[in-house]
Amino acid sequence: MTLTRIAITAAAGVACAMTTGSAGADPTSIAPGAPLEIRCETQATQVAPEAKVSAGAFRVRLDAVAGAPDGAAGTWTPVVRDAAHSGTLAERHREACRAGCPLYIGAESKAFELWVPRRTTLDKTAPGETLTIAVIDSTTLKLKASTFLDQQIASLEQGDCYRTP
Prior knowledge:
The chain is mostly beta strands. It has one domain (4-163). The chain is built from one helix and eleven strands. It has one helix spanning 89-92; strands at 4-8, 17-20, 28-30, 36-46, 52-64, 74-81, 101-105, 111-116, 130-137, 142-149, 152-163. It starts with a strand and ends with a strand.
């Protein structure tokens, strides 16, 4: 297995390293103007607006953006998903994140946080509003995502992510 380290550096110098494989490779940095695509293989269980389970892969693009609003490190954008994986967050937020949704670096630079539509607390969402938080752990590259609709759980998703060539 090839070692992959992914670091994202934003205007404030915040970085998050993602590592797989064996030691020794140079890290790949994401800087403004140099996006990175990652591929995630996940299973999604959706309970609202309709119940369904799907599994497969999707790709997202991570972009560092200097001076991003609300302290974000950059944006994330869904790129593509497997046809059978209709319950994935990449499909659920395809339109909303077409121009990019907020990307944050988690506590102690240990995770990427992908938010839709913005970083907020559940109690501050409006009636009918959807809120998603997806976290990719920098050590294990495991993705865990929760989506809420009307402040109730709407879907859960988990799986593994990899850097695309």
